[in-house]
Amino acid sequence: MEKNRIKALITLLDDPNQEIFDSVESELMKAEVEIVPELEKAWEEHPEGVFQHRIENIIHSLQFRDVKKRFRAWVAFNGEDLLTGAWLVAKYQYPELTFEEVDEAISNLRKDVWLELNEHLTALEKARILNHILFDVHGFSRNNSNFLSPQNSFICDVLDTRKGNPISLSIIYSVIANRLGLPVYGVNLPKNFILAYMDHPDSLLTQNSGDESSVLFYINPINKGAVLGRKEIEHFIKQQKLEPRDSYFEPCSNLDIIRRVLNNLVLGYEHTGQLVKIEEIRELISIMDEH
């Protein structure tokens, strides 16, 4: 859509005639998210309440549509990159957030770990180094003061505040580990979320073979990366009165991880009574259901 046409349409957004407004809004919604800067400029220049409110709604609709489009493409590729999925969830709340910003923060953490690693270390020693850098040096921890806060599910907030929930901390841990060539993947354990350190990078491909030995040990990110064995997981499952399942011991897919992030967001928004956001997050979940 031409810039002059966009500007002309924007000037009509304060028209009191509902039919005219509906027509203008419909035309603007045919454009791509790239028109948002023009809308934001108009918002700043016209402080009138109704005009600003209408622009805000159109901006949000365009940005949310863009997130859904990107998210649908990510899901279609089976959630190939976990960090991209986490970024898209955060982009829902922070539309201006770029992947490069999140990627740079992760890369800086990866570099700090890489400087301490060498090829002669055992898997357990490598995990301890990762734990030390993330939890001791950088101070990542569970957000105990506001555990249900939606911010705990947005990776940019977690990278900034160093506070998160089990799954957001696990995502950061796993992405960094994978970039260092360490086979660490998320395990979709109910009422918690942990990580599995596999015996070989390719063992994830055969995780459903029933071979328990493919997992060397488990890692609990909300307890400073405490290393756990299978018996500890079995005890936890029994303690929570859950029926044992193979999926509680094996790595899950990136799609499963992001679905759980979205479910946590629904719970967080229910806690704060943000009904519109609940419905929008459910729209993202429905995209996964369609897949």
From TrEMBL:
Domain of life where this protein originates: Bacteria
InterPro entries according to UniProt: SirB1_N
The Protein SirB1 N-terminal domain, residue ranges: 101-263
One Pfam short name: Transglut_core2
Family: Belongs to the UPF0162 family.
Name by which UniProt lists this protein: Transglutaminase superfamily protein
Organism of origin: Marinilabilia salmonicolor
